[in-house]
Amino acid sequence: MLPPLLLALLWGGSQAEDLRFQLQVPKVVRVQEGLCVFVSCTVFYPPDGWIDSTPAHGYWFKEGTHTGTGLPVATDKQDREVHIWTQGRFQLVGNPQDKNCSLLIRDAQKEDAGMYFFRLERGNYVQFNFMQSKFYLEVTGTRLRTSHFSVLTLTPRPQDHNTELTCRVDFSRRGVSTERTVRLNVDYAPKTVVISTSQAKASALEPQANTAYLEVQKGQFLLLLCAADSEPPATLSWALEDRILSWSGPLGSRTLELVLPVVKPGDAGRYTCRAENRLGSQNRALDLSVQYAPENLRVLVSHANRTESFGNGTSLPVLEGQSLRLLCVTQSNPPAGLSWAWGGQTLSPSQPSDPGVLELPRIQTEHEGEFICRAQNALGSQHISLSLCVHYKKRFMSTAFSNGVFLGVGVTTLLFLGFISIIVKTLRKKGTQAETPTQAETPTQAETWRPKVSRRSTILDYINVVPNAGALARNRKATPSSPSWPPPPDAHSPKPKKNQKELHFVIHSSPGPKSATQAPESKNNQEELHYAAFSFPGLRPWETQAPKDTGSEYAEIKFH
């Protein structure tokens, strides 16, 4: 036999282990026959042999039933059979996993009276019958005056909002009945946000339930409608990317429209409808793609370390030998195909991955002409032209300068030689004319003598020469009756200064013969320099008849 102390220790250890299993339930529960009753129950058990995901099952048995082979009166295990006489009337409404083991008894019968205990199963360790915590069900008979009640437990759903719930009491044997109806008001967060679209003003809305992407063409009409189910009604808002477009009031309609009367490329992006009330919020998005033909076509020209933008029909001057990079840029959706053409021929792109780039590393004369960029997609096309003008700045200026220098030198040389020749010839001719007249000539012949002229005047016709003073004096002595060239009335006799030369201009009205005798020069004067003097009154033909004595016109230049 075991010592009494060892038995006490073993018995005490067993009790300590059982204390971890506790059940709180009323000792006695009374119910009137035919009515229902709720038995509140709470269970506690150790966390051994199970985890949070391990299911827990509870069973209510009537006292005297074997838990292994007998049938329970109620259980939450779906595949476990229960007594037929309690089926549908006894219900385990608590969740043992949440430490709730409450029992509901409907339509209580006299036979239901008795003791009941609870069993819990969870994992391999928790397999426990709470035999120390039982309750007794007492079923009383009917009375003439008593209160009747019925308990209905339910979890409301959003679809239960505004539904009616009726409790009815019917005493059919006495022909008496009564009822009361209540309307459920169920509050819930927004759910099932739906976006519908219409691409014509008179067309029906189409819910975008299975897709979050929509394609429309530029210039088209578009209506977006957002609807949300919530209670209380949610505040609705439309946003494009991060920009709020419109919103409804907190007690407004359950739908919100967004109208785009004429869709533009800038309207593309992600549209988000947000529904929110005090219980929560929900969003739904729609990606809008706007399709349109190429537009805003332009050419970006990179040359001389700068980039410029050019429109259609622009002329671009460049220097020979300069590098040039042309980039064709457009806006379109879907993206347009780009190509370059020159002189009616399509050019191969400089970069196959970017056909809009055309590079001319060294401009030559053959590059001059019209370059055309064409952009095209399924909705249309657009083109832009750029005229390239090649200039030769350095070569042109150097050539022009060289040619100008040679031309100036040549013209100057010709003029100088021409003047020398004219002066020499004139001196010779005047010298001959001064010695030609004889004493036999009459004054009339001397006065009317003129050199022959052609129909066109020459520069010789406008030249008068003052010969050497010494030679002229000798001629006057030899031919005293020869005509001379008197100075005009308005001419002044210059006073020569020593070692100084003076320049004199004398202008007369028109060319004509000399009619007076020129005064002899001073003999003290040394040999003088004589130059041709000429004037141009007008380029016109001369008449062949003898002109009237209208005076002389000439210019005289002297250096003293």
Automatic annotation (TrEMBL):
Compartments it resides in: Membrane
Annotated ranges, domain Ig-like: 3-116, 190-289, 294-387
Gene3D superfamilies with a match to the protein in the record: Immunoglobulins
InterPro entries: Ig-like_dom (IPR007110), Ig-like_dom_sf (IPR036179), Ig-like_fold (IPR013783), Ig_sub (IPR003599), Ig_sub2 (IPR003598), Ig_V-set (IPR013106), SIGLEC (IPR051036)
Transmembrane segments: 404-424
Signal peptide: 1-16
Classification via SUPFAM superfamilies: Immunoglobulin
SMART domains: IG, IGc2
Biased composition (Polar residues): 433-447
Keywords: Cell adhesion, Lectin, Membrane, Signal, Transmembrane, Transmembrane helix
Region named Disordered: 430-452, 474-560
Pfam families, per the entry: Ig_2 (PF13895), Ig_3 (PF13927), V-set (PF07686)
Membrane topology reported for the UniProt record: Single-pass type I membrane protein
Sequence similarity: Belongs to the immunoglobulin superfamily. SIGLEC (sialic acid binding Ig-like lectin) family.
Family matches, as PANTHER family: SIALIC ACID BINDING IMMUNOGLOBULIN-LIKE LECTIN, SIALIC ACID-BINDING IG-LIKE LECTIN 10
Full protein name: Sialic acid-binding Ig-like lectin 10 isoform X2
Organism the protein comes from: Ceratotherium simum simum (Southern white rhinoceros)
Recorded name of the encoding gene: LOC101402941
